[in-house]
Amino acid sequence: METKDLLKKVRKIEIKTRRLSDHIFSGEYHTSFKGRGMTFSEVRQYQYGDDIRSIDWNVTARYNDAHVKVFEEERELTLMLMVDVSGSESFGTKNQLKSEIVTEIAATMAFSATQNNDKIGLILFSDTVELYIPPKKGKSHVLRIIRELIEFQPKSKKTDITQALKFLSGTQKKKAIVFMISDFIVSDDYEKTLKIASKKHDITGVRVYDIREEKMLNIGIVEMQDAETGEILVVDTTSKSTRMNYEKQYIEKVDFFKNIFSKCGSGTINTRVDESYVKKLLGYFKSR
């Protein structure tokens, strides 16, 4: 994509998503995530009126004088956007591809975080981590993230959520608000790594899908290509058992996503390409 066309596309997404974040999401984002934790500040001598439950007994024993731990509310948070850039994201039968909706959701979340003076980082992943942008503040940083979401060309078309979560746990030592955006049509069992990551971070899985992925239509004998492996298969869609088996496998993967995230104490959002992701995000924020 030429620089001029890229800048036009970035600007178009900025205008649309910034308007949403300014007028709709910033307040909801603030209510949902800000001030959720307390971070250690210092240890000082005990003063009359201090809560005895805050006494640091180790320091008190060392100095033979009562000391208390002082905590302060977390004012600055880190938003990590984990975005699936595998081959299956380049699919869409309506007005937009899944990857385009993914970009809009990520941009909206980034601008909402910026409104609250939070840092924003980006992890683009396939079956490996394709790109990592460390968390920073500012509009220019957000625009760089949007540019990468639009023009980045991954080396692999496959997906491995486990590797992405391991990278998150290895690079983000402090608690972060994490939005993992994918179609979650994957074969790897990421339960263990999600459980570990969820103990430290506030993770939400955002599943973006297309209506034609849910069921196989009866359209005769056709050639189909796997978007991630490149394998071409001749499929007889007139076969009822073939269509039922496809639907069964799809439902199993969606149920796995919902159940594992819930089991690990993480949130989920499901939005179809032709639906309003605005309503889905708002509903999720309000439910928190």
What descriptive keywords fit this protein?
288 residues; alpha/beta; six-stranded mixed sheet; two-stranded antiparallel sheet; 10 strands
Helices and strands, with pairings:
Elements: H1 3-33, E1 38-45, H2 57-63, E2 67-73, E3 78-84, H3 98-115, E4 119-125, E5 129-136, H4 139-151, H5 161-171, E6 177-182, H6 191-200, E7 202-209, E8 221-225, E9 232-236, H7 240-263, E10 267-272, H8 277-287
Parallel strand pairs: 3-4, 3-6, 6-7, 7-10
Antiparallel strand pairs: 1-2, 4-5, 8-9
Summarize the structure.
This protein has 288 residues and is of the alpha/beta class.
General description of the model:
By secondary structure, this protein is of the alpha/beta class. The protein contains 8 helices and 10 strands. Strands 5-4-3-6-7-10 form a 6-stranded mixed sheet, with helices on both faces. Helix 3 (98-115) links the parallel strand 3 and strand 4. Helix 1 (3-33) packs parallel to helix 8. The model has no long low-confidence stretch (mean pLDDT 87).
